[in-house]
Design a protein that fits this description.
Helix 3 packs across helix 8 and helix 5 crosses helix 6. The chain is of the alpha+beta class. Among the domains are: 45 residues, no CATH class; 160 residues, Nucleotidyltransferase, domain 5 (2-Layer Sandwich), CATH 3.30.420. It has a six-stranded mixed sheet, with helices on both faces. A hairpin with a 5-residue loop joins strand 5 and strand 6. The longest helix has 17 residues. The protein is built from ten helices and eleven strands. The chain binds zinc ion (ZN). Zinc ion (ZN) binds next to loops. The site of zinc ion has 8 residues, from loops.
Amino acid sequence: MELLSQNCPLCGSPQVKPHDRYETQNGTRTIYHCFECDTYFSETFATPIAGLRTPLSRIIEILKARSEGMGLNAVVRTFNVSKKTVIDWEERLGGLKPVLMLYALLDQFLQLVIEGDELYTKVNKNVPPELSEGWTIVLMDRASRFLWELHCGQKEQQLFEQAIKVLVQVIEQTQDLSLFTDGERRYGNLLFEICHELVRDGKPGRPPKRLPKGIRVRLKNKGAKKRVGRPRKKYQAPVPEHPQTNSEVPEHEIHANQIEGLNASMRRRNSAFRRRANTYAKSRQHLQRTLDVFWVVHNFVRVHLTTKVVPAVKLGIMETGLSWSGLFSIRYAL
Ligand SMILES: [Zn+2]
C-alpha cells in the first residue's frame, strides 16, 4: 500500500499513463488513462482537493493557521474566507484519518508502550463534566508520540469501548504491548472483556481467562481520590495476564506523562481547547472535526517538538513525514 500511489483508483493497476492535461484555476492537471480497466481519471480523483477551485497554496495557508491554534472566527476575519468553506476543508483533511489509520496498521510492531488518558474541554453549554461531550480519549504511543486514538464524546462506556477497539487492532500487530493509564479502570476491564484468552493450566474446571500473551495493563491510582472501603494500591495490574507475559514493570514507568505534554500542545494548537468564552466548541461533531485534523497533522506532518521527528516516522511506518501538499494528494481509498 502506497499512500501517494499513482495506480488506478478503480482497479489498482499500475498500467496507467498520462492521457491529457487541463487547466484549472489551480494550474495544470493531468488526466490519466488506465489500460487495465479503460477508465480515465483526474490526478485529484478521490483526494481531499477533488472539485475544489481555491488554489491549494491558499487552502494550506489557512489550514496551517488553524492548526497552529487560530480560532475559526479569527481565520474567517484574517483571510476573508467563509466559515463554511474552512469547515469543509477541515472535513476533507480529517477525512483522511481512516486511510492513514489503515496504513499505520499494516505494520508490525515489536514493542509498544501506550499511554491512555482523557482530556477535557467545554462543548456548547456549560454543563457539569459528567454530562459534557467534551471528553477526548487519547491513546498515545510513548516513544514516538503517535496518536492511535483521539476521540471525543461523553465520558461513558461507548467512548471507552471505541478506544479499546482501536487498541485491539494495534495489539493484533504488536508482539509486546503495555497500556499505562492514570486512574481510569475501564481501559483494562474493557480490554479484558474484548480480547481475553482461555489459558489451559492442566487443572480441572474451566480454564482461567487471561490477557493475550505479551499484553500488560498497569494503572496508577490517583492518590487524592477519596473512596470508601479498602484503600487501593498506587500501582496496579487490574486484570489477569498471560503466564508467559513478562509482568515486571518498574513503577516509575507507569504514568501518562507524555499525554500531559500533548494536552499542553492541544491547548496551543486547537482553539476549541483554549478559548476563554463559555463555549469552546459548538458541538461534539465540530470538536471531533478539529481532533481529526489534529490527528492527521500531529501524526504525519508535524515534527514533534521533543523527539524532533514526525511521530509516524519515529514509529517506523514511513521514512519521511508528509508535506501539506502531499496530504492533499492522498486518495481516501487506496
Ligand atoms: Zn483501472
